[in-house]
Amino acid sequence: MTDYTPMWRSLGLDLKAHDALLSYLGGVYGDLFLAQKNRPRGMGYFDFVMSEVHGLRIKELMDAKAAGRKVIGSYCTFVPEELILALDGISIGLCTGGEWATDQVDQILPRNTCALIKSAFGFKLGKVCPYVEACDLVVGENTCDGKKKAYELLKTYIPSFHVIDMPQMKSDAGKALLHAEYARFAGKLEEITGQTLTSEKLAAAIATVNAKRRALKRLAAVRAATPAPISGLDALLISQVSFYDDPVRFTSSLDALCDELEERARRGEGAVSADCPRIVMSGCPMAVPNWKVPAIVEAAGAVIVAEESCVGERSTRFLASEEGGTVETMIGQLVERYLQIDCAVFTPNPTRLDYVRTVTGQRKADGVIHYALQFCHPYQIEAGPMVSALEDEAIPTLRIDTDYGQEDIGQIRTRVEAFVERLKA
Amino acid sequence: MRTAGIDIGSRTVKLVILEDGRLVLSRVRENSFDPLAVCREILTGERFDAIVAAGYGRHLFTERIAGRAITEIKAAALGARHVVPFCGTVLDIGGQDSKAIALDGRGAVRRFEMNDKCAAGTGRFLETMTLALGCGLDDFSRLAEQVDVSASACPTLNSTCTVFAESEVVSLIAKGESRGAIARSIVEAVAGRAAALVRQVDTPEALVLIGGLARCAALRQALSRRLACPVQAPDGAQTVVALGCALAAMEENR
């Protein structure tokens, strides 16, 4: 195995803490992912990517940086990857799915801040994330109040930081704001990369990102098969990997996996049995290594067949227009595409419930689990009406509010097992 | 056929044995830091053909000792429906969890809710408060019953956190509030949380209260007033979940 220590040292990581993180991740990955039965062969690629998550992929980034390319990190699906790729940047969705350096984070943020925001600080302050250290620019976005205010503090630790302002309503004024902000972001990227945005480059980037999203849509579609050809944990992992892997290589590897899954579906083979209760997860994003609730759900004998989540289908189900035109019109097309994402920061946000309903039918799901992080007001507030609406339509729904801690696992397991018993009754 | 049900809760372990569906044994033990030892002790000398476990220790029990696990929610539904036929809504106030369960016409779980991960509104909350007042549950209930809720002397307990509520109680004692008034305010705090949990799943016509706190008459009255429905605590309310387990064991071996 390659020794990446010099590379990690050069990035300024706390090597001891980083070793602890890697050893924790390796253990959890073995228990949750590798121990699963009937896994598709095509998961081998994603297992490899995960095993090299802080190794080979970082080396690729460092090599690309040495060749003059820029690494752009972000925390949200509203940051347009197309603009980054068009300027020959590398887009990395920074993960915020684990509790780290809690002592340091608690000195900066109030305790009642959502776990995802705390995690962004934990990985930075604990010096354990080579991605954030490798970034030439980190991009925040004014989605929820927590993130908006936390970025004011985070950028004091990350010198090269850009914030995209966001509308709260999908109105004409909202559209105009996002358009202006995407144009300003393109300008920032031009400044960082020293390149000029052209319609040809943007068209090529849109094609690349659309291809990735098409492959993810293909994965989503094949999960409608009974028995489910892939576990929810594996499908979630693929979504998580999509945020930091090379997009072209990711797409071809995922397409190969989908060939296998479609063949499995034709033969009636599954990762689980045909009578396994099927569940749609809806709510807050689950970034690496946040596998807590899906692991409990699948250990309870159910299978997750969709994630209505930003790490899932909420964003990837929308393709950008490939009509082309001037850079200006193409940015407008991107705005149209991105404003379809039904994040709970928007008011009102009726299409999110519509999609949960639709996908529950499409995937022949037996029930929905609404997942929200404590102190995430947008999703916690949407949970109430969503649960009532679905239950009124005879779709069994369970609401779970949690964080990245381990102390409520017993309780969540009881609730999830009781929910699975209810679905089987 | 003899079937057993064991409910391994955070405070107590409960065992019920049925012989051809008839109750022949019901036993409660304090739990400890070693729940498996308590389970082995409570089972000593008992003979049965099948056993089903519920409670937070259920998976440990089935991995290390015997049987199959179901959740305490399903077990509570089975047990409550057995002791109170036609029961539609169950509230189980346990040591660390409170659960509200709505049943359908067949007795299956229609909806359920549990409290958050903190101990607010659970048996543990009430236990801590009775300790602060220096009395047992039965004395506590009698104290509370002496004070009318509308009495201006009855203070409101603002904290839902067990730790903060305890310090609130301590400061009420220091202010010279009567124990009865404090007991009443504690009962109202628990009943308020529990009633809200019930309303999340159902608008009950009648409520069956199970778990160790069911014997607290003041709590039953407070719940009945808040939910505007009769509240019934069946005999053996503390062992209803264990009974549900024994019934599940009988069902699957039929």
Task: Give an overview of the whole structure.
The complex is a heterodimer of chains A (425) and B (254). Chain A is α/β, with parallel strands linked by helices. Chain A is built from 19 helices and eight strands. Chain A has helices at 5-10, 15-34, 43-51, 56-66, 81-86, 102-108, 115-125, 130-134, 145-154, 172-193, 199-222, 232-241, 247-267, 292-299, 313-316, 327-338, 350-362, 377-392, 409-424, and strands at 71-74, 90-93, 137-141, 161-164, 278-283, 303-308, 367-373, 397-402. The radius of gyration of chain A is 21 Å and the shape is globular. The model of chain A has no long low-confidence stretch (mean pLDDT 97). With 254 residues, chain B is of the alpha/beta class. Chain B has two domains: 1-84 and 237-254, ATPase, nucleotide binding domain (Nucleotidyltransferase, domain 5); 86-233, Nucleotidyltransferase, domain 5 (2-Layer Sandwich), CATH 3.30.420.40. Chain B has helices at residues 35-43, 58-64, 72-83, 123-133, 137-145, 162-174, 179-201, 217-227, 240-252, and strands at 2-8, 12-19, 22-30, 50-54, 68-69, 89-93, 98-103, 109-114, 207-210, 231-232. Chain B has a five-stranded mixed beta sheet with strand order 3-2-1-4-5. In chain B, strands 8-7-6-9-10 form a five-stranded mixed beta sheet, sandwiched between helices. Chain B starts with a strand and ends with a helix. The mean pLDDT of chain B is 91. The interface between A and B is medium-sized, with 13 and 15 residues.
Question: Can you give keywords for this protein?
Answer:
heterodimer; A: 425 residues; alpha/beta; four-stranded parallel beta sheet; 19 helices; 10% strand; globular; B: 254 residues; Nucleotidyltransferase, domain 5; 2 domains; five-stranded mixed beta sheet; 9 helices; 10 strands; 21% strand
Largest sheet of chain A: 4 strands, parallel
Query: For the CA atoms, what is the radius of gyration of chain A?
Result: 21 Å
Provide the gyration radius of chain B in Å.
18 Å
Oligomer: heterodimer
| Structural class designation of chain B | alpha/beta
